Fold this sequence. Notes:
Elements: E1 4-7, H1 13-21, E2 27-32, H2 36-48, E3 52-57, H3 63-76, E4 82-85, H4 101-127, E5 133-137, H5 141-144, H6 150-170, E6 175-181, H7 187-192, H8 195-204, H9 213-225, E7 233-236
Parallel strand pairs: 1-2, 1-4, 2-3, 4-5, 5-6, 6-7
Bound molecules: NADP nicotinamide-adenine-dinucleotide phosphate (NAP).
Amino acid sequence: MSKKxxxxxxxxxxxxxxxxxxxxxxxxxxxxxxxxxxxxxxxxRVRERGGDAVTVQADLTSEAGCKKLYAEVADRTxxxxxxxxxxxxxxxxxxxxxxxxxxxxxxxxxNTFSVVMMTRLCIPLLRKGHDSCIVNLTSVAMRTxxxxxxIYGASKGAVDSFTRGAxxxxxxxxxxxxxxxxxxxxxxxxxxxxxxRMEQFRESTPVKHHGSVNQIACTIRFLVENDYITGExxxxxxxxxxx
Length: 243
Ligand SMILES: NC(=O)c1ccc[n+]([C@@H]2O[C@H](COP(=O)([O-])OP(=O)(O)OC[C@H]3O[C@@H](n4cnc5c(N)ncnc54)[C@H](OP(=O)(O)O)[C@@H]3O)[C@@H](O)[C@H]2O)c1
């Protein structure tokens, strides 16, 4: 059965690969903020693979931005099957002894508040979908502690906790799960992690290599397709964190 998906941050990295992974036979809202050309290319690749897609722009660091994205989606459909809350980022590297209020707000707005607000806004559309679910992106940083990414890790820890609470509140209509990736080479790291630090991450990973965007996209797909899983966060990190 054809699904309608909204994937936030689908212009690059994990979100882009997730759109392509779900392309065949499905309709995808490819959300982006600044990478318009990249988002268009993702939508084209979705169509080449037998799906359909539209691109939608919004900066999700404010309530107005989240409402703008929701309004554009709701203009085009009265039901959604899947919401992937993927948009996010480190914003900057800084230590706890230097962090300011504005920086905390910026990091939590992008990684936490946008997830809560997009979830809240999309509930009525998801309630009209089929086997509806939400998948949130958290991070290994919330498990292990990540110096210079401590506030980012905390913002992802909040998403992990939100995932369980929302899963209970929204059951049985909407399942809510999360994926916590390890180190995945994407523009995220190109912006904030120098090559020598990437190499240190690789060395300290038990499997001795980084993950791929498709390994995360396939995990998202697994959570979408398995209707016996809700309130779960799946760690995909090469052993960087083990329970
Ligand atoms: N890569 C990793 O190692 C890793 C590890 C753990 C968790 N994650 C999480 O996985 C998710 C995807 O990351 P990625 O690695 O694929 O990074 P990425 O390639 O940098 O993608 C980030 C996406 O988020 C969007 N975005 C950034 N700022 C935004 C804003 N203000 N408003 C709306 N959208 C915004 C970007 O849109 P534009 O480019 O169009 O602006 C882009 O589509 C993030 O939540 C990240 O925290 C990544």
